[in-house]
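Quick one, T. Sequence first:
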Amino acid sequence: MSHKLLETLRNRCAEETGAFSKSWQNHYRIALIYPNTYHQGMSNLGFLSVYQLINQRDDCLCERFFLPDADALQEHQRSGFPLVSYESQRPLKDFDLVALSISFENDYLHLPTIFALAGIPLFVADRDPSHPLVLFGGVCAFLNPEPLADIVDLVAVGEAEPILPGLLDALQCDRQADDLWQRPAQLPGIYLPNFQQSKAPRRQVLDDLDQSASRSFIQAEGTEFGDMALAEVSRGCSRGCRFCAAGYIYLPPRERSLENLLEQVETGLCDRQKIGLVGAAVADHTQIEPLQLGILERGGKVSVSSLRLDALTAEEVDSLRESGLRTAAIAPEAGSQRLRDLINKGLDEEQILHAAQLLADGDIRNVKLYFLIGLPTEEQADLDEMLSLADKIRLIWREVGSARGQMGNVTLSVNPFIPKPFTPLQWCGMEPEKSLKKKLRYLHSAISRMPNTELNSESIRSSVLQAFLSRGDRHIGRLLPQLAEGGNLKQICKKAGLELADYVTRHRDNDELFPWEVIDQGFSRDYLWREYQNALQGKLTPRCVAGCTRCGVCAGSLDA
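Structure tokens:
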């Protein structure tokens, strides 16, 4: 036993509000794992919502597990103390079901460590009925489940609310029963990687968001959003950016009613003064201004996860400043109009600069600009236009800062384009690592000569790994233990007889089937291919109308 580890868990739990504590008698026991640290996991609204959904049931209990922090991991390994839950400090192997909630592919690398600490074999073939079943859910599960096909027993294809009730009913049976897999195999939205199914499972969506709350059910200090109560305002995005997986796998776009949101706001304000509004396109909510006003009228402050550059108003900027916003994040994505049209961004430079001027005039001190490099057909001229746009925004900030006597900062966040499954750009290859590094060096050199401006970027190596994991098939699951130990990706692939370029940089033809097409997103492959061709021709596609299922984005191919 490690008193040090138990003390850490108990201290964190003592600082929380909203967690469940249930008796272990007569309950189906679910271990909900976020395969990253407590700091990261407790900042994830989807993870918190699934925890609440399960614990609302009288027949189930759900307890949380996370990847231990670095010092705690060393203590686990030194003492041999197993990974235990936050609620009851019970070991993972005592649960009936292990549910993995995974939002980021690079977190796959933490699974070997978590399973080893739990004393549970990583691969399905090495487990027996004495071990818990393993369910894979979260964004990664319905983007491409195949990399974990040899590790998990079941995959939830879609959103938790319509899937979990039937699945939890079906799983509460004798593990030795002959029909163990027959019942879940018949459920919508369940993929069984090691069981023959008659057709690809269809992604499930919650039609009416008002039917199930999604907010910070547990308030925890010391996390990324520990100073605010989070509330989900919408799912999906109407804009149809061709590189963005979330814009497609959450179709159709849906939003919560103003009445429903204000109820969540009032609950959140009981614990925190600031309300964080969460969604892929928060600013596109049809009632965003009344919602922000409602928060301010109730004595709260507002934080938003995205700004709508083409419709930003001085009033919206005022409400953000009153809420304490000092750094605004905006996403031009590309510096040139040609590339913004290619990705269907639907913004021109005038709109971007107008939004920047509003933010600067509204006394928002700093701005962060999100850009992609390595987009299809990108040339040197596109990089130069990115620098030109950044400099124009910097000059706006300089002029306003000089007038008020305090200069702000402009930060460029520049990261490689990764062609994601179920997007129009899924046929593209990622730009080679050597070329991306050269482009970043060029941009760093140019930005270093701009006062009050800096450039941040992810590791190119990490981005290549993400592309490999997000576009992979079930062969790559066997490589996770070696990758988790920090091995060289290219050498590990070569040793396994795999060609890294086949997964990452190779361009695909229309007739090639993808590993992720074992699941059905509900919209057609033909539509994505047409959008890819439109991208290469620089044609824009009209944006979707929130709440519809037959519109410009889905081209009539998404079933109602």
